[in-house]
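Question:
Now give any protein.
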Amino acid sequence: MRTQYDVKLIAAILGLHHGREGYSKIWLSERMRQGLPGVSLVRVHQNVLGGNKEHLRPVASRSTLIRARRGSGPLSPSTSEKVVRLAQVWIQAQGVYKDDSKARRFLAEPHMMLRGLPPLTVAVTNRAGLEAVEQLIGRLRFGSAP
C-alpha cells in the first residue's frame, strides 16, 4: 500500500516539486495526466536504469528520450505512467537489495516467477504487471522467493 511518503520519494526520483497542494496520490495522478516533464524520463534513465538504452525500451523510445533531453515538452500520459511505475518498483527494489547495481540487475534480468520476463518490462506494462512485480519484491523481502 502506498503512503504519502512514497509519493514524496517518487517525486524526488522524478525531479518533481509540488505546489501549495503538497504530495499526494491525486497530485501525482494529475501530473501524469498532464504529462510529466521530460526531465523525469532523463532522471529515470540515468539514475534507475544506469543510462542503459536497452533497458529504456519498455518505458520509452530513444527518440522520446532525445526529445526529453532537449526539453521539448511534456511526456505523453502513457509514458508518464510508465516512468512512475518504474520509480515505484525502483524504490522497492532498493529497499530489498540496498545497492543500486543489484537493484538494477534485478529489474533488468528475466525472472522465472514472471514467466521469464524482466521485472522492469512487466511492471511498466500495466497495473496488473506492476502488482505482480510488487508481490515478487515482497516475497524477496521476506525470503519466500528464489
